[in-house]
Amino acid sequence: MAAGTQAPRPPAPAENGLISREIMQVNAVKSNTRIHALLASPTYNDISILIVSDPWWGPIGTAKHDTDDQHRLLGAPVNPLWRCFAPPIDTQNPASPPSCVVYVRKDRGIMAEIDPLSPATPFFFIMDIFINGFEFKIVPVYLHGPKHAEVAEALFQLPMIETPTLVCGDFNIQHPDFVDFPGAKVKSSTLGREFAGWLLDSDLHMLNDLHRPTREPRVQGHAPSIIDFTIANGALFSMDIISDWDSSFAHSLDSDHAAIFFTIHAPRVSERPANHFHFVIDPLMEDDWIAVFEHRALELGLKSTITCPQEVEELASGLLSACTWATEAVMESRPTQHKAPRAPWWNEDCSAACGRVVTAKEEGMDSTKSIKSSEISGEGTFLRSAQRSPEKGLSLENFPDFLTDRDEIRAQTSHLWYCIRKAKRTFFDEICSTARPDNIWSINQWYRGWKSYGLPTLRGPDGTLATTNLAKAELLHDTFFPYTLITPTGQSVEAMTQNTELPFPTISKGEIAANLASCSNKSAPGAHGSNYRVLRWAFAARGDLIEVLYNAMLSFEYHPVCLKNALIAPIPKPNKFDFASPKAYRPISLLETLSKLFEKIMAARFTALSGLHSLIPPEQFGGKDMTSCMDAGLSLIHDIEGAWAAKKQASITLLDISGYFNNIDHDLLVRCMQKMGYPAQVLGWLRSYLSNRTASFRINDEVGMAFGLQGRGIPQGSPLSPVFSSIFTAPMLMSLRARGVRMRAYIDDLCIFQQSGSQEGCIAGLLEGTCATLEALSDMGLSAERSKTERREYGQVAGVLLGPAPELQKSCVEDGHEGQVCLGRDENVGEQPSGLVGIPRAHARSSLNSKGHCKTLQTVQNIACRWASGSFRTAPTAVLEHTIAMPPISFRLRHQCTNYSAKLRHLPSSSEVCARLPHSFRTSVPKLATTARSSPINALAAYTSPNAEARVPYLLMPWEGVKLLDDRLAVSMPSCRGDAQKKAYALALQSRITDLAGKTGVATLYTDGSCYSQDGTRHTGWGWCLQLGSEEIDHAGGALGPNHTSYDAECCALAEGVARVARLAHQTPLYLLHIVSDNAGMLQGLLSSKPKGAPSSLDRAARDICDLASQHAQMDLLLSWCPAHHQVPGNERADAIAKAHTTTTPTPAFSVSTDRIRWEAKERLLAEWEVHWNTFKEKHPNSMGALALMNPPHLRLHPFHAAPGKHWKLHTQLRSP
């Protein structure tokens, strides 16, 4: 039998030099579990290519979408050991799913790709297969449905003469000449005669054994038949390399079609490629790796003093070599083709159940092999057969034996399906049980499905085909990196004002460590294969070498050559179906992590300096911090609503810069940054970084020849690419703003806005703005992508909102250099005046003002509540929300809007969102602000106050921060559970404070805040006391008023106390500053470079501490958390001071704090939710949930619900209707 049960063995050439691969074809009858079993069971380990007719094709994931009609992702079952190929059609159309798919094993040395130039339908497509350098084609087929004859006719028209070709699948066609077994009932038909004629005329050869049916009857009166065929064309048949054709109903896992097996013996056309290996980085081997790395670094003589650029190169290459050496010496190596284990959820129960199905089917066939299938299709036919053939010994007494065999097969098949479902549920339950806040989004990736891509044959602009990996790399190089000698004028760059030189201090170990801590171990490594986990180990072992390297790169203005090569991986763009076009891919550069870490440090500095000094115009929303794509959308909707409020129409033109990242001119980029004020050493390093860069395409795991990048382009995948792209557009956006063009940009996507009292006025303004934009792009050596240019209209007629037009059918750009513009005609809206784009019917407003969107979101949340709690569909939603601590969506949305509004006072004053705030806000620009109530920016502003707390952006630069003090910083914040642990820690802390008090130059600062309500009035106070040695030398306190929180008070006390320490340090030498606080959140915020939700006073305290540390290099810092009210004298003293000042006259710096706004939003949510819950209880007093849930709802899961297993009976009643 073709399908064995032995363990997988590595492919080996046969004695005659041929390499044999086994192929299986089967009709899966739309069974998900059947395909999973075929892919995962060890029974089918010998199969290298699996051709599946009538596969299961259904929802495999969920895509986020703003409507309900396109959120399900469709696909076939997946297995990590197999690569799945489907027809190159719109596979997301549920009306015409693929009727056949092909699976190819990854570990068998088989290259496969879909032929994109051959016709493809849901019923058949053509694949190119390469085994041992030998190429042949496979045509999977499943002909069925009402268009059976039409589809068959299309198949018969395919040319199959020159290239060796296999045609395999379910044809649903019979012919009397193609059966030769007893009991066959085949009538001649027109389609059957055409099929026979096609075989004869096309020199096609049928490989089937005509004595063996491929389909067994399951309906009374039907007969077995041959409708599944394996066909070879003359070119393949003449080579005599197909053998061992066999069929088995047992191995099709109870399908009514037989599984077909055969072997192809591929001749050796080319040399067998060398096996490539990759190394598995095992975290448990960290100590061994570090030891080998340190030893190798000593052998190479890596030193921490550098005197010339050549030594910079030697140090960089030595670090890469030492990392590679240690990895190869310590870590386990595996062939690259073993990309993943078998399906992770498949277990021994599934394998045993699959084997029992095969055994039951084989035993059932043995017991009935002397009886025709048509004779046992029913009791009546069985009796008639017994009467006609008494010699067979048939009688009604033994008829149940035959039914028992069939029942056994069905029982075993049902048990296999049960085992698979159970294994899947167990596997994913374990994944969900490990959910944490830091990995919840990675778990969410399961809903999007899983795809694997092999780069298929590509088609060049002239129609030539690129079939080999080398040819594909050359075509992609010509597409993405075309070199035409061009010298952009850069007039907008020269028109920029020359800024003063910006500060750019040396890079410290603390800054390196902070950036390295945020790097993901899942980031793809470069050519040397060292990921960020390995780099962390290297930094822990010899961080001094990396610090010296990075600073030497700046001081010697040199970027090492070994860090300039990039592996380019072409990644398919979403929603692209013509994968033969190179434009359907995006080139992503895989760089060395040693270089990417340095680039990340530089990118953080460039971003902060650009924001602090407003070097990038506010019209650019990408490539910088504190702005996002959502801000661009909010400002655009605001302007449209403002135009409507003024009884005007609005229009936009959308442009996309063609090949933007690959066409950024290096000289212009350096000149632009020079105008911005970056120092000479940074510009010198930048020239070295951009010059003489090389890249290599990695196509289907094969790395091509390196090529040079000729003076243009920045690597996509580098942390520097976003900020460089935004810096490069800065002069263009400044020049367009001076010319009166209202522009928005998000990296390379441009939007020109125009409003006017008429559509003609909008068009005229857009024409002028588009011409100016095209000229500005040409000045920078760029151009617009013609196929992605469109215009959209937003009008308001008779109170009806009219919205964006569909994409234009023609390009908006006719000739960018001459500034000629042609507006396309939309052919979907009938006759239009002057041939211009018409206006469609409706425009969707922001969801902030739409009850319809809230209702949809609430429906989705109700489903999620039932899924999370495992409840019945009829269970009351209010009870489920209370049980799993999930408030109704309308309350949650108001809470989120309030939280977002608090950020409005934290953005830079030049932000496009801040400029459009109402007139009462300080940052409001009168010509941009509008009173339109439907503006989302106005709606958000209503949730906050113009006098709310504001934070100063960029108070700390990337090279500054308390955490970057490195060796001068010590932190004591243990995790104490229970009062006993807190008491023990408090005693240890008091002992430590006593020891430090006996030393010279030790200052201890205690801070605390107090907040309470009395007679309906909220009082908030802060206090601190400062001790030098064991004596208190100063203390202070104050009140903040009712619109602040204890967190605000604590941070205010810290800021005031640190300011007093700074004055003390100028009078008395200090060697240690010990800060003691009972607020762990404040201490954690102090250590964060960008504390989330922290008061502005915490930024001021961090700024003062950094200044204090820089002015007094001998002073260290110790941060200690203190358990509240555990009799620590200094903490009790600060608490008493804070309480004593709560009722004094408040002196706040602002009317309401950000933390207070968030607190009020939370309290309002809880109050509204409690009213909602009480209303439900009044309407349903006898509900089990109303009787059992006595406490009001809360945002945290109650301990009773956190462990439902302890109270499963009551939980079952709560989740019941």
TrEMBL record:
SUPFAM superfamilies to which the protein is assigned, alphabetical: DNA/RNA polymerases (SSF56672), DNase I-like (SSF56219), Ribonuclease H-like (SSF53098)
Top-level division of the source organism's lineage: Eukaryota
Database matches in CDD domains: Rnase_HI_RT_non_LTR, RT_nLTR_like
A Gene Ontology molecular function term of the record: RNA-directed DNA polymerase activity
Span of domain RNase H type-1: 999-1143
Residue ranges occupied by any Reverse transcriptase domain in the UniProt entry: 552-802
Alphabetically ordered keywords of this record: Nucleotidyltransferase, RNA-directed DNA polymerase, Transferase
Name of the molecule in the record: Reverse transcriptase from mobile element jockey protein
Organism: Ceratobasidium theobromae
